[in-house]
Each structure stands twice: as structure tokens, then as C-alpha cells.
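Review form for a predicted model. The reviewer records the input and the model, then writes brief findings.
Reviewer: anonymous (R2)
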Amino acid sequence: MLSKNITPAAIIQSSIVWAHEVLKNPSNRLVWDSETTGLGRFDEMVSVAILNMRGEVLLDTLVRPSQRIAPSATRIHGISDEMVAGAPSIDEVCNHIRSIVPAQKFLAWSGEFDARMLGQSVRNLQTPLVPGQAASPVVVTHDPATHNYIWEGWEFYDLIGVYSSIYGDWSSRHGDYTKVGLPNKTNNALGNARATLAALQKIVSEHPL
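Model under review:
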């Protein structure tokens, strides 16, 4: 629940200003999206796409997980175990990202989810899951002041909160805006990264300062 001292109008204006600042300073953040083996606390990424704020593709790659992909996930994104068998590991992907991106700061539709999935992917590679044994927890911290979700220095800004504060409905019961879905959502990481950037651009174009 948000502070009682913060009004819905103030939240909307703050979100609009933030969106303008991000597009005005495109070097501050890149756009990230991923597809995964599933949604749970043991799942991993199977693809990653990164764009700059001009929409140029910096990375679009499959990722080889340490486990099989759930059939239900394959039905959504179309990525099978056979397709990722020869793909780079998450460590290789992260090393490549570090080589092309000076700071690991990203804009994601669901920042908490992507930060958690990155952490789980690295954990599972370094310490393979053993049936019946508990996995070490992945610690994702949240900075309320910036709405960043952070794992091991990798920062993911949660765009769904900004977008929902402008286009969602205010809930007096929860003291917050109801979350809305990603407009023009696709079934692949690159398409969803483009849709995330388009959502940010929509805020700026429809709400000039």
C-alpha cells in the first residue's frame, strides 16, 4: 500500500516525468525481456533479448538451462529442449552482456520476475538442483525509492508499476493501482522487449510535459 500522503495524481505525474527522463537520457537504461522454463522458484531463463532505447537489438539469444523446459512453457514461447541444447549457458550470456553493456541497468515489464529468474539461472548452474534437497534462496532486493529490483548488482526497473499508475484503475481498498498487462504482448523475448519499449514511448507521446 502506498503512503497516505501520496495522492493518485502525484503518482501519475511522477510516473510521466520518469518516463520522459528515461527516453531523454537513453544511456541510463536498456530494455530487457526473457522467456523461462516456467514461473516457479526453481525455474530458469531459456532466452534473453536486450534493446537500447532506440530499439536497436543488442542481444537476442537462447540460453541453455540446467533443467528441462516445462511442456506448458514450450506451448507458450515455442522453445524446446532440443532448441537450447547447443545454446550458451547463463554464465556465458552474462559475460557477454558485461562485455557490451557498461552498467547492468535494465527496464523490464516485470522487474522482480526477471531479476529473480536471472538469479535462479545462475544459482542452478553453479549448484545443480538435487531432487529432495532445498535450493539456496535467491535474494532480490527492492529499492522503493527507485522501484528497482536488484540481484547481485543487476538492476531491473519494473515498468508495469509505472504503466499501471497511468493506465490502470485506482483501488481505494489497496491504496494502489491495479496492474495491467503488457500491451501487444508476444510469445518471445525480443517481441516483448519491443512491446515494453513501445509502452514507455506511449506514456511519453500521450502525456507531454
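Findings: DSSP finds seven helices and nine strands in the chain.
Further findings: The radius of gyration is 18 Å.
Recommendation: see findings above.
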